Write the structure tokens for this entry.
Amino acid sequence: MKKYIVVLFLINLIFVSCSQKDGNMDLSNNPLLTEWETPFQTPPFAKIKDAHFLPAFKEGIRLQQQEIESIVTTTEAPTFENTILALEESGEVLTRVGRVFNLISEALTSKKIQSVAQEITPLVAKHKDDINLNDKLFQRIKVVYDKRGQIDLEPEQKTLLEKKYKNFVRGGANLNEEDKSKLRKVNEELSLLTLEFGDNVLAETNSFELIIENETELSGLPDGVKQAAAENAKARGHENSWAFTLDKPSLIPLLQYSDQRELREKMFKAYIMRGDNNNEFDNKAILSKIAKLRVEKANLLGYDSHANFVLEPYMAKEPKTVYNLLNQLWNPALKKAQSEVKDLQTLIDSEGADFQLEAWDWWYYAEKLKKAKYDYDGEVLRPYFKLENVIEGAFKVANKLYGIEFVERKDISVYHEDVKVYEVNEADGKHIGILFTDYFPRPSKRGGAWMSDLRKQFIKDGENITPVVYNVGNFSKPTGDKPSLISVDEALTLFHELGHGLHSLFSKCNYESLAGADVAWDFVELQSTIMENWAMQPEVLKLYAEHYETGEIIPNELLAKMERAGTFNQGFVTVEYLAACFLDMDWHTITDAKEYDVIEFENNSMKKLGLIPEIVVRYRSPYFRHVFSGEYSSGYYSYIWSEVLDADAFEAFKETSLFDQKTAQSFRENILSKGATEEPMILYKKFRGREPKVEPLLKRRGLDKF
Ligand SMILES: [Zn+2]
């Protein structure tokens, strides 16, 4: 850790001396702007310095401006080639610089990188706006679009044309001047209101603290939780006490373990009342305005509701499809939750307590019941999941499904010593692409796990450009003499990200913007999540999950325990989540542009569903940040939609065999290689022969018997 800080410090020093020369830095020596004469044209990380980014970004913007200018000023009549294709191919340098920068800013950031990001983000945003609001450019696109019936276009060209045109239209390019200015006003108001909504939730979350001074009030809490609460108190300036806050890592353990029913109630109520306290941070009026403005915007653009507007480019396409899915899941989930209520009440009664289960009791009694019923602790599995073995296992699964090989390359430049590079080849040795992996946490890396591209596959001047992708994670590091032993969740994540990686690696598309994993967000998690299914199959575990000391393969009884515990409490989890999906959809399918009484609206919505009083919707409206200040409006359903898809798609393998070659070939051909060149539902039907069914997911969550 110490060594690391020194290195960062040195980088900053180098940067300071470099940055003074920023102005006259020679662009022809900037490795981000010169040809990459490296194996597979991977980025020459060793040569790229922080100070190269800003001038490279600016140069990339300048070049694309020039390209756009020549598209709109040509005297030739608009054609697919001189307009749509020219727009698609513009900005190559900016894209290349942006891709390297994205990786570094998320996986190896520093003060310098952050300051570049701050400087460049508004410039790039303005540059993108300049393109999207360029009326001359839109008029040329429109000419091509309007005569699409008369010109001879390949299906993929049609998709590209449609997508480019729609992007402009959805931004308001087709409106008259009066409506354009209305739209601008609505957008402006919305951006301020959604920001304020998020700030209020944050303020409400931070303003609450529960300080405990008497240790007896901590009864039931594990030592780790107590310790975290003590540190929390200290950091908040309270000596000799324990602090709990409304952040989930503090709230949930208290709800799970605290024997003090009043404390659980107090915390829970504080949590669910955020944004609804009629104080300066109250969100009710704000969200009512947001909902109204969203209808206005949708109407301006020609849609009945906000959900109709948002869903159009997605797999679901329209609200009806989403409701249909949610309805199929709701009843079984609610019935299972009702049976869980009974189990929990029985436990309460058996302890001699005299009260009815309330929402703030759920976590506590579920935890107790789980221990009594399953005696399962995921930690005992760790020794079987040595990181190197899990990587090997994931590669073996990909090999058995698709015949591909992963060959480690030590001759490719990396941005950090933890990074490994693999060449990915077909069974016959043909090169597919490059995979970078970067699995350990460090202070310069953001949390979570993700996949992205340093270069996407597409066809350029008749030549196939091969992809360069990366998987980044934050898995448990080796400690002392122990290797990296990862949790079951981390192992699943590793398989998941490799699934995204394969989506990009297997791409076989003509145009970059339609290629790889850039698909609708209710489709993009299928390709990744399906990989998780293989990870925990007994047949697959035998390939890789061996004890790091004894070499023993993971015992079957442990696996059986894990499986049984897997469906525990799924009624609650599913109902809590689905209720929030319904609430999101209800708010965004309103077609009257008027303000609503928020609490009445929410109550009606939950009443219609028949939500039971023992469960509160996962996010009540006044703190539903995903949909009122994040990107998930009318999209909160997409998490479970992906799960329906992956469970149903994996069923195709279970119906034949885990590594059935015909099924794997079809999955690769129809789902993994087509990018966004066709409608997701069409691709899915080509693979499965029908639309997805919910039954496999119901079974996985133990809801199928209800
Ligand atoms: Zn994912």
In short: The chain has 27 helices and nine strands. The two ends are 52 Å apart (CA to CA). The domain at 383-564+639-700 is CATH 1.10.1370.40 (Neurolysin; domain 3). The first strand starts at residue 210 and ends at 212.
